[in-house]
Amino acid sequence: MTPDAALSSSAMQRALDPASTSTLRAMVLCAVGAIVGLSIAGYGLFTAAGTSTRTVPPESVAMVNQRPILRSDFIAQTESELGKTFAEATRDERLKVLDEMVREELLVQRSLELDFAETDQDSRNALVTAVTQQITVGIVTSEPDEQQLMNFYETHKEQFSSEGRMQVVDLVLAGENMEVGRAAANALRSGTSVEDVMAGFGLTQPVRHDEDYYFAVKYRLGDVLFAQVEHLSAGAVNEPVRLGDAIHIVQVVSNTRPVPLAYPIARAQVATDFKMFEHERSLNATLTFLRGRSTILIADDYAADYKP
Question: What topology is assigned to 162-256 in CATH?
């Protein structure tokens, strides 16, 4: 047998050998697998979120630095600006709105680059307002049913009453002579006229108080004096109170106290207060969640007293 024939015969035997065939098959499959894997990786690399591409997804009308302007937003803004349906808008009108949205996106992205959320108070206020509205949008847009309102009314009856009205005379004694103050108060209680008491004890009336709602009287008198006279009847006089460098003696001229309102009369106010209550409840629940996942450090000079 010639050398060439022997070599050819040896090669044929190796090709027909089962072990050699299995090795060759494994090598081919590995090569195919590598090619497929690289293809998938390349596709993922060039189509992943945040990857720069030259195409606009079907659900978007534009991409600005890989941030989409959605067609749904484009249609809504077009109809809102033009006051007609999107189908009725001309090509030029649509292009004008599209350019406005592109310009807006550019400016928003620039504000993020400048970190306005941290450095500009107006931007922070707008963000807080937007997030608050997002949290409570369901409460604002939905209407509570009658049973919810009635339950709220029953558990908050003290909130629903008529406005109390009151008229008082606030007399002022300069100095700190409490004995004179008590004598003046007793004279008023015994029926002596305000004019005679003022003249006899040297009192003044710096401010004249006409009849007004409780909240207005409280504002003018201050919390301390109002708390003393709120429940007094007409003609009654408080115990003299030293405020600052003077003593105040208040006589009640009239006092129409608040009376509870029945549910049918108070219903409109119940509905308003219910929504406010739910608004605060939802907002507080969200803040509790955010605090729970956050690390908040308070400076030593405030840490002991800070209570969220």
Answer: Chitinase A; domain 3 (3.10.50)
Cα–Cα distance measured from residue 283 to residue 132, given in angstroms and rounded to the nearest whole number: 7
Residues 6+ apart with CB under 8 A from 60: 68, 69, 70, 71
State the pLDDT confidence band at 24, using cuts at 50, 70 and 90. low
Cβ atoms of residues 224 and 241 within 8 Å: yes
Taking only the tens place, the pLDDT of each residue in 277-291 is 999 999 999 999 999
Q: At what angle do helices 263-292 and 146-155 cross, to 10 degrees?
A: 90
Q: What is the pLDDT of residues 130-170, one digit of tens each?
A: 999 998 888 878 899 999 999 999 999 999 999 999 999 99
* pLDDT > 70? residue 188: yes
Separation in Å, CA 21 to CA 13, 18, 25: 11, 5, 6
pTM, to two decimals: 0.56
